[in-house]
């Protein structure tokens, strides 16, 4: 949650755990190309914003959990026959091609460490960057709501890690002096 909400104090407290997960992903780096999926509900405005970003790079600010099995990703959408209670949401499946030759951020199959191994989970490191290839709507059978498919591939963009002092200066600029003082 700290990564998604960018809560500075929580990020600072969790930095060792975040680093440990990243290190484990590097150790377990997938050795062959994979196609993975992620099912989720998304605000209509966010889907539209992504649709306007076709051909651009998309950065994910948290760890990204995906699966090798599209059916598992579809299960995370819930019942697509029932209208979403919040009319501002849509069903979305991310269809992602990832090649380990892209060394920008690690990703690994973690089913042996997962609470649900049959999920066939593949985890991408926080800050992974993807190239958005296409967005299209997949109509469903009678009575089912459409599912938006977002096709992406892991990008080979170089990672740019800030030294801790740069992070401290950033915190100062954000007027988070209490947290910045912990870094100097």
From TrEMBL:
Residues 18-142 form the ADP ribosyltransferase domain. One of its GO terms (cellular component) is extracellular region. It comes from Rotaria sordida. This is ADP ribosyltransferase domain-containing protein. InterPro entries: ADP-ribosyltransferase.
């Amino acid at each position: 949650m700290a990564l998604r909400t960018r809560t500075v104090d929580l990020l600072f407290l969790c930095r060792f755990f975040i680093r440990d997960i990243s290190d484990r992903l590097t150790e377990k780096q997938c050795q062959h190309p994979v196609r993975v999926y992620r099912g989720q509900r998304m605000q209509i405005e966010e889907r539209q914003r992504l649709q306007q970003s076709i051909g651009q790079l998309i950065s994910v600010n948290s760890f990204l959990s995906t699966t090798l099995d599209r059916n598992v990703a579809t299960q995370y959408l819930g019942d697509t026959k029932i209208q979403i209670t919040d009319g501002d949401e849509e069903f979305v499946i991310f269809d992602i091609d990832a090649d380990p030759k892209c060394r920008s951020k690690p990703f690994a199959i973690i089913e042996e460490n997962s609470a649900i191994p049959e999920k066939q989970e593949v985890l991408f490191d926080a800050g992974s960057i993807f190239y958005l290839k296409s967005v299209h709507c997949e109509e469903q059978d009678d009575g089912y709501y459409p599912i938006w498919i977002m096709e992406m591939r892991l990008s080979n963009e170089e990672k740019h890690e800030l030294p801790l002092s740069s992070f401290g200066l950033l915190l100062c600029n954000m007027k988070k002096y209490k947290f910045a003082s912990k870094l100097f």
